[in-house]
From TrEMBL:
Name of protein: Fumarate hydratase
EC number: 4.2.1.2
Organism whose genome encodes this protein: Ignisphaera cupida
Keywords: 4Fe-4S, Iron, Iron-sulfur, Lyase, Metal-binding
Molecular function via GO: 4 iron, 4 sulfur cluster binding; fumarate hydratase activity; metal ion binding
InterPro entries: Class-I_Fumarase/Tartrate_DH (IPR051208), Fe-S_hydro-lyase_TtdA-typ_cat (IPR004646)
Top-rank taxon: Archaea
PANTHER family to which the protein is assigned, alphabetical: FUMARATE HYDRATASE-RELATED (PTHR30389), L(+)-TARTRATE DEHYDRATASE SUBUNIT ALPHA-RELATED (PTHR30389:SF17)
Family: Belongs to the class-I fumarase family.
Residues covered by the Fe-S hydro-lyase tartrate dehydratase alpha-type catalytic domain: 11-282
Enzyme class (EC, first level): lyase
Length: 295
């Protein structure tokens, strides 16, 4: 079948959504297996075993790995020389509608005032499209698909710390958010922490760190990398465990910190949770419509 560029873009995004909701990325699977091996709470271990079986079953059946297929978010990075820039927004909406029927995805897009569900995961500012920069040298379009579960989104939060308190505020904010969240974000979670910048930038950094960064990667700033390890130890020491079942090895799989320079008078600390169903897919579309999908 010969598809024109726009049709190929729709197909690429539907395929990316399918890959994201059916297959868990390998770094997340490995981290869940490690948590299972290291967890001493029998109740948490039983939940981790059920999660791992569920992941296997989803792959075998080609079915979504969680009934909540999330709020669909696209991070778009433009290649300046990509020939289909004018189609991008309409492609993302059309692909979301198509994927909702074909995969299927649960319709999760609701009017905030009336509670009415659009039925196809679209609506005002839905799907969420985040324009994530331009690569002047590139002729390709890069889209990261993130179907993010409602449970993890529900407990994501923002603190405005006292600037003079510094690093102590970060530890306090993360622990407070994790304690308040409890089992709601379906632990083990990946916790993104966005520090500094403005309130909106801090949350943007936190959400990207929670959803896109691979588990096992180290932050290039050694101070931040050490902070991440310390925060992960502190979070797991809280003993919430997988699905709130207790245990010291499965409250979180990773803590990812990102930061930006801030105004001297402000100290935003954003905490974004990602649940164990940490779904994502990286789509790259070439000018001829051919594409690759990675996780
Ligand atoms: S928070 Fe994640 S694992 Fe829990 S129900 Fe929602 S999508 Fe599924």
């Amino acid at each position: 079948m010969n598809l024109n560029l726009r049709e190929s873009m729709v197909k690429a995004v539907v395929d990316g959504l399918r890959k994201a909701v059916v297959y868990l990325p390998i770094d997340v699977k490995n981290a869940l297996k490690k948590a299972y091996e290291e967890e001493s709470s029998l109740a948490a271990k039983a939940h981790l075993e059920a999660i791992l079986k569920n992941v296997e079953l989803a792959e075998r059946l080609g079915a979504p790995l969680c009934q909540d297929t999330g709020i669909i978010t696209f991070y778009v990075r433009l290649g300046a020389r990509f020939p289909g820039i004018q189609y991008i927004e309409s492609v993302l909406v059309e692909a979301t509608r198509k994927a909702t029927v074909e995969i299927p995805l649960r319709p999760n897009s609701v009017d905030p005032f009336t509670g009415l569900n659009s039925g196809d995961n679209t609506g005002r500012f839905a799907p969420v499209i985040i324009w994530d920069g331009v690569n002047l040298e590139s002729d390709s379009l890069e889209i990261v698909v993130v179907p993010k579960g409602g449970g993890s989104e529900y407990v994501s939060t923002l603190y405005m710390a006292v600037p003079s308190k510094g690093i102590e505020s970060i530890e306090e904010a993360v622990l407070d958010a994790v304690i308040k969240a409890g089992a709601m974000p379906c632990p083990p979670t990946i916790i993104g922490v966005g520090i500094g910048g403005t309130v909106d930038l801090a949350m943007h950094l936190a959400k990207k760190a929670a959803t896109i960064r691979k588990i096992g990667s180290r932050h290039p700033n050694p101070f931040v990398a050490e902070l991440e390890e310390k925060l992960l130890r502190m979070v797991n020491d809280l003993g919430i465990g997988a699905m709130g079942m207790g245990g010291k090895a499965s409250t979180a799989l990773a803590v990812h910190v990102e930061y930006a320079y801030r105004h001297p008078a402000t100290y935003p600390i954003a905490i974004a949770f990602q649940c164990w169903a940490a779904r994502r897919a990286f789509i790259t579309i070439k000018p001829d419509g051919s594409y690759t999908i990675e996780q």
